[in-house]
Amino acid sequence: MSDFRTMHVTDYASAYEGAFIRQLRMLDEEIRTRGGRPSSLVLTRKALEQPWAETLRRDGWELRELPAGSTRPQRRVAAAIADAARELQPDVMHVHFGTYDGSARLAVRRLRQALGEDAPRLAWHYRTALETTIEERALTRRLKDLLKYGRAGQDVDRFFAVTHALADEVVARGAAADRTHGIVAGCDTDIFRRDIAIRMRVRGDLALEPDDVLLLHMGWMWHRKGGDLLAEAMRTLEGSSAPGGGRIVACSIGAPEDAVLGSVRRLPMTDRVHEYHQASDIFISASRSEGFGNGLVEAMACENVAIAATAAGQIETFANLPGVSPIPVGSSAAIAASVRSLLERRAMWPALGAANRAHVLEHHSMRRWARDMTDAYAALCPSTLARHDDPAVTGRTEVA
Q: DSSP letter at 187?
């Protein structure tokens, strides 16, 4: 059995497991299939109180508490990370979302001084794109980037990003190109799929008629996700109807209560997002910037058609698919026009939706992501973990 273990460090503390924890669980499953040890997770007290944390414990994960990064000196956070690493002895320390990048880097520097080559490899992982281009950032911000990614980043063994476009952004911020890799994120296609029974139940809960068309939007970051653009587009669509005389209804999951919603209905954040996808017809991804469009790919996996802004981190998930209508970033008029165009092609939705799911299954499954990430670990620690195509893993032997 391999001794390989990864230790994830994050400030993720949502009440719901969400795509992030599902990804880590599938990654852990892949590592275990290659003989590795159960993964470990260092996270805040708030996260430790969430139901999914107890589920991880039952599955054999080692969980350790981390001081909240925004309220504690970095040296205290670094000490907690280093203590956890000494106890858990991971091969890779994998830091997510950026909050603890500096603290983890300081912890690894201390561990390298004490342990030498036995210290864990350090990975920083990015999921969210900047809201502006590098050139539009203030000079002080760009200098901070160079200090972090260029100078402090010299201690980082790998920079990971959820799309190739986001990896390019990380390099532009100062990271070394030869240590920066885009490993395109994935969707849990077992959960996100078409389910007629769920569709009918949820549409009934939303008081939708059979001919009504439901537009679904993720609005938990209202401006970044273009919620204001959807609200403006709905004003343009007032008085329009779907084929058969049905209504056009727009809902935004997680939209803030103080946002100007207009006719857009606010839906609360939930761990049942897949049910809303299954009940909807058109997904609206109007993001001004995007690391990886989880909502878009999940909608495609549920065999829905979609309208998607051409944000850099999103294009590679849908380029040239006829079931996804591309629109310029920041255009409410384009959203309204694309809705009308899709309504005219409503008879084609089943075929377009099926093609969307097939594309996700081939290119964006979460299990494929877990395999590729484990291969990246194997490249970092070749003596402790085999690649997926190694005969020791596959059971196959190479034939000349």
A: B
What was the pLDDT predicted at 396? Answer: 38
- Three-class SS of residue 178? helix
Structure tokens at 80: 């907690």
What are the start-end ranges of the H helices in the chain? 18-33, 45-48, 51-58, 74-88, 101-115, 139-145, 164-172, 196-205, 227-237, 273-279, 294-301, 312-315, 332-344, 349-363, 366-380, 391-394
Q: Which has the closest alpha carbon to 255: 227, 275, 236?
A: 227
The strand pair at 265-267 and 282-285 is best described as unpaired
Question: What is the architecture of the domain spanning 6-186+365-394?
Answer: 3-Layer(aba) Sandwich (3.40)
CATH code 3.40.50.2000 region(s) in the chain: 6-186+365-394, 196-363
Distance between CA 14 and CA 33 in Å, rounded?
Answer: 28
Is the predicted pLDDT of residue 86 greater than 60, yes or no?
A: yes
Kind plus residue range of the DSSP H or E element containing 93: strand 92-96
3-state secondary structure of 184: coil
Query: How far is Cα 365 from Cα 184, in angstroms, rounded to an integer?
Result: 10
| CB-based contacts of 143, cutoff 8 Å, min separation 6 | none
pLDDT in tens, 185-229: 999 999 999 999 999 999 999 999 999 999 999 999 999 999 999
Cβ atoms of 35 and 1 within 8 Å: the answer is yes
CATH of region 196-363: 3.40.50.2000
DSSP string, 233-266: HHHHHTT---TTS--EEEEEET--TTS--TTPEE
Helix (H, G, I), strand (E, B) or coil at 73: coil
Q: What is the pLDDT of residues 88-147, one digit of tens each?
A: 999 999 999 999 999 999 999 999 999 999 999 999 999 999 999 999 999 999 999 999
3-state secondary structure of 365: strand
